Amino acid sequence: MTALEILGIVLAGLAAGMINTVVGSGTLITFPTLLWVGLPPVTANVSNTIGLVPGAVAGAWGYRRELAGQRTRLLRLGACTVGGAIVGATLLLVLPPGVFAAIVPVLIAVACVLVLIQPWLVNKLKDRPRHAHGGPFLWLLVFGTGIYGGYFGAAQGVILIAVLVLGLNETMQRANAAKNVLAGLANLVAGVLFVIVAEVDWAVAGLVALGATAGGVLGARLARRLEPNVLRGAVVLIGLIAIVTLL
């Protein structure tokens, strides 16, 4: 790799780490960058998934105050995410490329709408009984999001936030904190599986990790200062960018 390519990968990791912590969709920056330096698509996806894990850990640490009191909830939702990520990563390795290409933009669009109308929906559903940890329906949705996260994961955060704010009736910031943990778990599980069965470019993964870790720290500092409506707007904006990019 040239010095320019090394710098480009680190900067892409930095941007992705920040975006993933604030909203999600950092893969839309790192994945094309890895293709630009000449990696085959599957190797790029695998190396990117592994490289983004430290950024997720850094982002979750930055959100540790908002994670207070969510331990039991995250253990249950985390188990759903892990199961889904194993399925998704396996599908990536056995299915032809592009199988999910048609449905992914639709999922992101629905998530954006749900995030936008979340205050109205919560008000409409305020008298509905809610399980403290979301209940079976939320667990199923998180499992499905885990499948997507293990398979590719771009804009996984947008979908997770939409699912969590409605299923838990939590604040945007606490939902975002939980999102960082769950999305990081999906990347970690997929990364472990990829290490076992797929080719990893460890130099590239290390460069992505270097940038993503710094980005996760900076992203948490930024995101925690955002007002709920600003954070909601950022989620929708990133989601729309993701839709355009994927199309």
What is the percent of helical residues? over 70%
Mean of residue pLDDT?
82
- What is the chain-wise order of helices and strands? HHHHHHHHHHHH
What's the tally of helices?
12
Low-confidence stretches: none
State which percent range the strand residues make up.
Answer: under 5%
End-to-end separation in angstroms reads 30 Å
The structural domain count equals 1
**SS content category:** mainly alpha
Largest sheet: none
Overview of this structure, please?
Helix 1 (3-22) packs across helix 3. The radius of gyration is 17 Å and the shape is globular. The mean pLDDT is 82. With 247 residues, the chain is mainly α. It has one domain (3-246). The protein is built from twelve helices and no strands. It has helices at 3-22, 27-36, 41-62, 64-67, 71-94, 103-116, 118-124, 135-151, 156-168, 172-197, 202-223, 228-246. 80% of the residues lie in helices and 0% in strands.
